[in-house]
Every structure is written in C-alpha cells, then in structure tokens.
Fold each of these.
Amino acid sequence: MLQLFRLLLPFRASVAVVLVLALAQSLANLYLPRLMADIVDFGIVPGDAGKILEIGGLMLLVAVLGTLCAVAGSYAASKVATGFGRVLRGRIFDRVAHFSVHQFDRFSTASLITRTTNDTTQVQQVLLMLLSMAISAPMMAIGGVTLSLSQDARLARVLIGVIPVLGAVFFLIMWKAVPLFQQMQHKIDRLNLVLDEGLSGVRVIRAFDRGADQSRRFDQANDDVTGTAISVNRLMALLMPAMFLMMNLTSVLILWFGAVRIDAGEMHVGAMMASLQYAIQILFAVFMVTAVFVMLPRAAASAERINAVLDVTPDVVDPAQAANVASRTKGQVEFQNVTFQYAGAEEPALCGVSFTALAGEVTAIIGGTGSGKSTLAGLIPRFYDVNEGRVLVDGVDVRDLRQEDLRARIGYVPQKAVLFSGTVASNIRFGHDTATDEEIRHAAAVAQAAEFIDQLPAGYDSPVSQGGTNLSGGQKQRLAIARAVARRAEIYVFDDSFSALDFATDARLRAALNADLAAATVFIVSQRIGTVMNADRIVVLDDGRVAGMGRHAELLKTCEVYRQIAESQASLEEVA
Ligand code: ADP
Ligand code: MG
C-alpha cells in the first residue's frame, strides 16, 4: 500500500489543488442554505424586495462560484487519477519486463494482463472517489450538523438520530458486498485465462474438435463472473432506494417537527427550510462515504494484486560493480561444474556440467528430449542463474556482467521460433536495429531464408502476423536464425533451431554459418546426429549430466549414449 502511495507523490501539487477546490465548493454548499433562510425570513416573509435582490444576488454569486469550483475540482481529480493509472500501468509493465524467466512462471499471462488493466482501473476509480470525497464529505457532514444546530438545535436532533440508522443500513449492505467484490477479480482472471487459451490454441481446438468443449468452459467462466456481478449489483441497487427512503423520511420528520415549532412561534420558516437542506446534504455525505467504503475493499484487493507484482524483486540482477567487457572480446564460454534446478522441480535439470567452448569452433550439444539441452542453452544468456558452479564468458562469471552487455554479445535462437508482428525486415532487424538493407539481405542469405523471402509478394516488406502465424515452421526458424545472424555477435546459440528444416537445407545452412560465423563461438543444440557430427566438440547430455565429450568418431567408440542415438538414426541418414 505504501508503495502505491509513494507513486502518488509526484501528483501532490495537483492533489492539493483538488482538495482546495473541494474545500471551496463545500463552503459554498454550506453557505447556500443559510442564505436561503435569510432570503425567506428577511426578504420574502416581510416582503422586502431590496433584501430579496441583495441576498438573491449573493446566492447567485455563491452558487456560480461553487459550481466553478466543482467543475475545476473534478477536472483536476480526473487528471490526477488517470495520470496515476498511467504511472501504475507503466510500473507494472516495467517490473514484469525485468522478471526472470522463473518469475514469469509464478503469474499466468492472463493474470498479469488483468492486473495491468482491470486492477489498475479499480485503484484509479477509488482514487478518484477519494479525491472528490476526502474533503467534501466530512465538511458537509460536520458543517451540516453544526450549522443546522445553529439554525435550530431541537430540530437538528432529528438528524442526529437518523445518521446512525443510515450508517447501519449501509454497513450491512457493504458487509455482504465486500467478499463478492473480492471474488470478482479472481473470476475475471479465470475468464481471461480461458479466453487466452481459447484464442492462442484455436488450431488445436479445431483439430481435436473441442470447440464445443471450449465454448462450455468459456460460458462457465463467463457465467461465473456474471453471477457474481449480478449479486453485487443487486446489493448495490439497494443502496440508492435505501438512501432516498431515509432522505424522504428525514424530510417528513423535519417538516413535521418544524411545522409544530413554527406554529408555536419558536422558529422561522427559513430556518426550517435551511435545516431541511442541511439534512439532505448530510445524508448525501454519509452516502458518499459509504460508496467509497464499498469500493475500497475491491480496490484494496486490486491494490494487493498489483503489489504482488511490484514486490517481486528480480532474481537475475546486474552486479553492483560490472566487470569490464571492452578489454575481452573473444567469446569463449566455459561451464564450470554447473548444477541448475528449476524452482519447484524435484531434480536438477543440469548436474555437474563442465566444458569449454572456444571461439572459432562449433560446440554441439546433443541428447534426448528432456536431457537439459535447452536449459543449458538458456544459461549462456543468463535467463536463469545457476545453483552451483559458474558460467564464464571470457573468464568472467556471467553474473558479474551487466545483462545488457552480456546479451549484446550473444545471438540466441530459441527452440520455438518467436516472431513479432511487423514485416520480414523488421523481424530480422530486431537483432540489430541499425542494420542496413544490405546486412539484412546477407543475414537472410546465410539463414537460407533469402529464397523464400524473394518469393513473397512484397519481399522483405511482406507482413508477418502476430507470432508469425502466416509463415511455416521452417520459414519461422530461418527468420529467427537470420535475426541472430544480423546481430554480428561473438557467441551464437542455436537451440534445436534446425529441427524444422529438411536435411539438405540443414546442411547448406550449417555450411553458410561456418563460413559467416568463422570467428564466433557457435553452439548448436540438436537431437540429430547429422546436424552435430561435424562439430569441433560434441557434448552429449543424458538426464542433465555430461555423458561424453569429443568428436564424432571418438564418441562413437567411447560413449554408449552417443552410439545409441547414432544407431537409432543411422537408417534415417542413409535414406537422406
Ligand atoms: P531438452 O531441451 O533437452 O529437451 P530441457 O532443457 O527443456 O530439455 O528440459 C530439461 C528438464 O527440465 C526437463 O525434465 C523438463 O521437464 C525440465 N524443465 C524445463 N523447463 C522447465 C521449467 N520452466 N520449469 C520446470 N522444469 C522445467
Ligand atoms: Mg529443448
């Protein structure tokens, strides 16, 4: 909570303006009934036209000033609240952008989206309410009671009796509504999750003919949100009539007792009218305060959810004193006895892995599915921090480098090619902002993508849809490779990046990479013997451990795991 308040600090000047305007508006509102009493008692009743004009003019002035303050106040309050929402969303996004890959696993994407949008809106709305109520509600309530006491003490007792009753009614309604409000956010999360899965998995859903099932899931989540919303709104709907009932009852009481007292000559008509107005103002203030209290719990639940994101301290952080990279520019990568375990996993994904990859060489990583290849590849750009041992780049622990400096030296191609909406060229340029068209073409040529790009209707300016869904798997992989090649890095990591390519393209690609990345440290992760057999060094992974290391010919003799992989694929190679 404190954290959120701190975000409000830059708005303190505007908040002060809002509060001053609210104060002025409240004073005007409190002054008007007083003037009304005067105009009735000293102008209308005695029939003094001059007085009527004089007081009437004053009333008009006060009313206009009050209205101006009200308009300016709500304008300023809206500006503060929306500005605050903007800052808050920015903060959440910023924090999420610095999440380590681990920390992403803690929140679902859907939940992060709800938190950034819906939850921020809740907080923003309650802030707006608070800003407009913070001064005026207490002023109206306390000022109203005091002034109506000054008008007529006996009549004011009616009010003092009504307020607690009203408070109790509102409290009861609130008490019922609060838990429902808290459920709402949770259910909206769920709705977003189902929606997200339904949209991103649409092909699989169609293929397995689970559309009806998916619709049912969505309907259920949707009904769930609707049900809760209806329950909440039903309760909230009670508030208004309850409030009007109380107002009218109070008016009747005041008129009743007022009439009796006026009859007895103990009170003026104007004073009674003023009392009536104060009563309405006071009840309205109580109503507003209740409304804030109704919104508070939902906003508090939202604030808590926002804080849960803001409170995450990134676990992959830059060192206080970054090691100097300028003097070392080779790209040698060394794993020293590395053990790594995913948060919440039972067993380490990598265990005691040691090897050195030299610049100018190709280091291949081979192993079965789940043997830890992608995990190993992800440790080089420091997506995770190791549990034991060290990953060194040119002799410097990656944890001693600034992430930006480290990653600037790495061209990484993920196992699952990820493209962004834009054009073919913009996706390749993602690896290197300032790349010239010539460089883009060269990268595409190395990645064996030039041919298919040239066949696209608009060539390099052809659109790529979100996630690259308008391209084939192999085309996506080649664009992802071109993106990395365009980077002109010292270290290249190809995580199973050739798996969607046919053998011939795979071979041509590797030959082109060999020529183009001759000076770099290249990691090729694969399950195919054909892809790794020409590497300078092959690391064989089995269940997170190094089962063997060396060249193809040696490993065939010395490493059982390697030989088995080779044998199982031998016939395939022959066919190819
Ligand atoms: P490979 O790339 O060789 O197929 P991975 O490195 O992806 O294997 O996975 C190695 C092991 O780590 C597997 O047992 C897998 O289940 C586990 N693993 C991978 N990613 C995660 C994750 N994000 N959280 C927990 N366990 C994971
Ligand atoms: Mg993998």
Amino acid sequence: MMNIADFSADSKSDSLKECIAKNPILWDELEKHPSKFRVLTGERTTGALHIGHYFGSLKSRVILQSWGVDMFLVLADYQAITDRNSTEKLKESIFEIILDYLAVGIQPQKTTIFCHSMIPSLNQLMLPFLSVVSMAELQRNPTVKEEITLSGTKSVSGLMMTYPVHQAADILFCKGNIVPGGKDQLPHIENTRQIARRINNLYFRGEKFFPEPELLLSAPLLLGIDGRKMGKSLHNAIYLKMSEDETAQLIKKAKTDADVHITYDPINRPEVANLLRLYSLCSGDAPETIADHIGRKGASALKKELTVAVNEYFRPIRERRTQYQKEKAFVWDVLKEGNIKANAIADKTLDDLRKAMHMQYY
Ligand code: TRP
C-alpha cells in the first residue's frame, strides 16, 4: 500500500481568492464550522483532468479537505453517456481521474471517492425523485438545453433529459449540503433543492430529511491555449498528466495577437491575458507585473517563461501522479473503499425514504 503524502495546498492562493470572492460568507462558514457541512461534487468520467479543472476546482477541494470538511467526490459514469453511446473508455477515464485526484492531494482517508453506477440505492432514489418533477421542468433546464444544442443530435435521450434528477440523487443520497461547481450547475442545484423540498413535504411532513444544497460557485479562470473555452474535446488544454515536453509544445502553439508589446488587457487581448493569468497562477505574481516584466520581449519570451512556470508548478503533482500510476491495485482499492462507504450511506437513506413512503412491506 502506498503512503499518501500529506500534501496540503497553499491556503489562500489566488485561484481560491476568486472563488471566495463569489461567496465570502459561505467560505467563511466552511472554514469556521467545517462539521456543519457535507460537500458533494464530482465530474463526468470523460477523460483525465486539465489545469482548468485544477485551478477552477481541484485546488479548492484540497483546501476544504484540509479544513476537515466531509467531502464526497462522485465519478459520474452514467452522466458520461448522456451525449455519447460509447462506454469502452469509461474504465480508463475513471482510473485517470482518480490518479489526478491523488496527485493533487485528495486523500481517500478524508475524502470519499465513489462512482455512482456502483451504488444501487443511489440510483433507485431517482425513481421517487422523478415522480416529483414535471416534464415541463425538465425541458426548461438551460444547461441541458445548451448541451443538446452543442451535441447537435436530433434524437435526445431520456437520460439526457433526466440526468439533473440523477444528479440530485448523487447529492442527496449522502445529504450533501454544499455543491462546488461552475455556474452551469446552478439549474441542476435548483432542481435538487426543489426535489428535496417536495420529498420533505410529501413524505416527511416538511421535516428536513433532505437538505436543500447550496452551490459553492467556482471561478471560471482559464481559457484553452487557443483562446476558446478549455475543453476535453478541443485539444486546447494542458493536462495534469502531460509531460513537460508536451506542455512546452502546446504552449508554443498558443494563440496570441499582432501586438508584440505584452500588456495585460483581458477585454481587448483575451488570449495574451489568459497566458498571463496562467503564469500568475503558477508564479504568484500579478498578471500586470508579469506583463511589465515581459514588455517588448514579446509573445515568444512570454511563452518560454510561462512553460517554465507551468512545468515547475506541476512538477511535484506530476511526479506523484507517475508514482500512483504504478500502483494500479491501490488506485482501484481507493474506489472500492469509497464505494463501500457510499453504499452504506445510500442504503440507509433509501431505507428511511421507503419507510416514510409506506413502501416497506414486511
Ligand atoms: N454535472 C457535473 C459535470 O458535468 C458532474 C456531476 C455529476 C456533478 N453529479 C454531480 C457535479 C453532483 C456536482 C454534483 O461536471
């Protein structure tokens, strides 16, 4: 069994400050009273994680973990098939994401990592939940609508329409009351709150059996190196798992603009500003300071220095990742243990709910 290094993220980092700025009261509560909260978040299992995930969410998860907040991370493999039919890569994706988690400092003794397809009672919660949601409500969810448009499909699956309800089961099975996520998750959290309220009113006489979770908004920090949204399918992301050479190659190709004089101007020069922001996140210096320092040396100097800064920042994370990669059995054990814990909680929640619904027959 590998020894998991006690790697605690540097506390008030710049990326965290941006998150805190979006909800200072909640962050303050989390730090002062961690035991009042259960955090549930996670991702679709569509591939390894990139530095956008890292600065946008992984880093703040490690901080919540270091404060002693009880945290659950769901690997949402059923959600990965909302807009695709292929399942062959799910196993590899799950493995890669767990490696990313361990590499950045998620500690399985403190944080439960599980995969929702292996938690039967969680999935069964979806049925009573579906009974309290109308078709019109499902069709109104703006995030789902956008995903349907993006996928370009003419035939929308039932899972696509109902996955926000499944996500409510991800959150409520363990009575999660805080859900870190981007603003695209807001409609889903609204659905979850509605479901919790309706089930509480219908079967628990308004008693708060399920909490109404709150979104802990993460900051959208980085664009891809081509200036578009950083995305798994766009080949514009620096992955945690990349080598230093691959990172250098990608940064070399980064989009900049015709003005050789480097300035920090997020409105008029979004691509250059994005590189400066990344440099800032890795070095701790303000983007304006970095821009002044590069000045007339231009984009190629910026890219060179940025490459060094990124590779230096991620070196220890990447080294840990390489170590864990060699420990296959350990990585799967992390998931197995997490699933055991999640199953016990889900069974209890479902049992209590079925009792309240008069559905325990003998
Ligand atoms: N919808 C999230 C995403 O696309 C993944 C997810 C699934 C999730 N279940 C969740 C996030 C529960 C927060 C809580 O990344």
